[in-house]
Amino acid sequence: MGDRMLRGSRLGAVSYESDRNTELAPRQTRDYVCPQGHRFEVPFAVEAEIPLTWECRLDGSTAKLVDGEEPEAKKTKPPRTHWDMLLERRSMEELEEILEERLQEMRARRGE
Predict the structure, then answer these.
(1) Each residue of 16-35: pLDDT tens digit?
(2) Which residues partner with 37 through β-bridges?
């Protein structure tokens, strides 16, 4: 008999509980604006910490909180170049010696 009651229903996909006689937690809504100008509201609990950025629902870009402070810029290291990595392994004196050796080899091949 019990299996007939559930026949045709999508188990797990539909909740059979109702919102009657339940009290929702106190909420607040905050406005966000993305660089494309989309403005939307996000509900938060009253005691929640409000994030300064939120992903835009329409285009996926990073939206900023309206009337919020600017998010802190992350510290980034400057990109290391090949020259920087070379200087980590060799001193300038060693590099000058290697350069002079290579120049001598090239001159010898040319016959100078």
Answers:
(1) 777 777 787 889 999 999 99
(2) none
